[in-house]
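Sequence in, structure out. Go.
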Amino acid sequence: MADKLHFSLVSPERELFSGLVDQVDAPGSEGDFGVLAGHAPFMTALKEGPVRVHNDGKIIVFDVRGGFADVTPDGFTVLAEHAIEATEL
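Output:
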C-alpha cells in the first residue's frame, strides 16, 4: 500500500475536507503543482482555480479563490479565502 498524505482544506466558514489521500493538485500563484506523501516542505500563495483531491481512484474537486498552501512533514493544508466543493469525478 502506498503512503497516504494528510490533507486539510479550510475556508473562513468551515473545514471542507480533512483526511488521508493519495495526491492533491492545486493552483499555485507561480503555477499548478501536485503534492504526494513525503513531499518537501514549502508554502505558496494560491490563485483562483480547482483543487483536485485524488484518493482510491476518485477525484473530488473544490473551487478555490485565493489563499495559501502549506506543505509540512505532517501533511498539506490549504487555507482558502473562498472554497466550495465543485464535483466528484
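Check: The longest strand covers residues 15-21. The chain has a mean pLDDT of 94.
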